Amino acid sequence: MSAWVWIATLAALVVMLAVDLLIVGRRPHEPSMREAGTWVGFYVGLALLFGVGVWVFAGGTAAGEFYTGWLTEYSLSVDNLFVFVIIMARFAVPRVFQQKVLLIGIVLALVMRGAFIAAGAALIAQFSWVFYIFGAFLVYTAITLLRQGQNDEDDFKENILIRWAKKAFPISSSFGDGKLTTTVAVTGKKLFTPMLIVMIAIGTTDLIFALDSIPAIFGITKEPYLVFTANVFALMGLRQLYFLLGGLLERLVFLNIGLAFVLAFIGVKLVLEALHTNTISFVNGGHGFHWAPEIPIWLSLLVIIGTLGIATAASLVKSSRDKKKELVGARV
User: Fold this and answer.
1) Which among 155, 135, 150, 143 has a CA at the least distance from the CA of 256?
2) Domains identified in the chain, total number
3) Nearest C-alpha neighbor of 205 from the set 119, 90, 120
4) How far is Cα 199 from Cα 116, in angstroms, rounded to an integer?
């Protein structure tokens, strides 16, 4: 993509973030279902419209790669929400301040993913064999997801940075007005609020999820612009989606299984592509394995949509049955 396209995209991103910051900063609140639904619909519609623009200016293949990448990153972002719920509960963040926490978390995620995308693009341009590593890492992540199941308490543990911050900084017991610092009325002493610890927890969690998501998106497209925009659109509506889904997150009991299959599928796709374009001298004399099939983007899109659809439907059916059993048991 040309420089002016990148500049225009980054300028639009800054404007969207500024609007979000203005809304949250001026009136911290817990959004209603209607407000959250409207914003989620807006961002989803914007992503679909952007894909049409990619189709017009870059062709159907590029548009297919964007849609597939966006859907993959969006589904991984929903998985992020499980951990965000744990963090909010662990640190007892008031609902009125949760929007602010999520927004700052999204900004941090965009910065980190931008850095990882730049590094990943540079590695791929220089070393095609990195696909072997990306593919193996995604398969390993898929196996880890299957092993942990839906036990999200394992997804978040206080890391060394959080424990250090708790000891190094004077932390108040109250969130105050939701800022990072507060002043004790009696002594005039300035303290950090628990918001600082929450921000560190969100930031370090974003870093871990970026390590999973970036190899996944590069398994779909090697175009840095499409990788970046797919991540942007997947993250921009995440704050509102958190409030829209609410208790529904707990009902998506098979989401980890679906995501594990998607990650394993993309991992295998990466390894097959690495075999097909092999340049490692001690593997097949540096020649590609032409028997290795190339998975087309349309098939990837169908597999991802089908897997996530089945996982969601099965989750809702199971949750509904479990709820009925609980009601029957309560009556007995």
Assistant:
1) 150
2) 1
3) 90
4) 20
pLDDT digit string, tens, across residues 56-72: 988 999 999 999 999 98
Q: Quick one: CA torsion of 309, 257, 202, 193, rounded to 10 degrees?
A: 100
Per the CB < 8 A criterion, the answer to whether 271 and 194 are in contact is no
For residue 47, what pLDDT is reported? 92
Give the total residue count for the chain.
332
**pLDDT surpasses 90 at 83:** no
> Helix (H, G, I), strand (E, B), or coil: what is residue 186?
coil
pLDDT of residue 246: 67
Residue-range definition of the domain harbouring residue 24: 3-331
pTM summary value = 0.78
The residue to which tokens 């075999």 are assigned: 275
Q: Model confidence at 316, in pLDDT bands (50, 70, 90)?
A: confident
Give the residues across from 192 on adjacent strands.
Answer: 171, 181
Residue 165's CB is within 10 A of a number of other CB atoms, namely 17
pLDDT at residue 105 in the model = 79
